[in-house]
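Write out the 3D structure for:
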Amino acid sequence: MLECSFKATALREGPAAESAAEAAWLAFLCPVHCENLSEWPRAGTHADNGRCRAANCWTNRPAEELLRSHAELWLTPLTGVQPEAFGGVWSAFLDEGDRVLLARVEEVAAVGEDSPLQSMLAMMAVARRSAARGELGVAATSLGYCETIALNL
């Protein structure tokens, strides 16, 4: 997720979602981010009249696809935990990812420092509990907050 205070001038539309005819995602971008992200795969870019702040994104993807995306984009690179190792059980994958993050936070705390990963732990707890209840959409939303922190590391 991007952080940007400018008004959007372009709407970038992703390819069709696996299970639907509509785009998998929509992103409102300012001129700078539109240029910087020119390599993003997309079905199209449309002019926008600035109705929205830049960096707002909407997704139409199913929750499991969002979870796979979070795993590939930041959670697996950050923790080394692979979702395939848990046979499609997202709660188990998130539990193990949380365990690794917590261990990393504790290592840093042991030498008297703070870690930005500490900010993730509360949202990871929400994601874990939600996944355990089968609420994968809520879990994916919680991971979106973690993604913002992870991408700024």
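Residues 63-150 form one domain.
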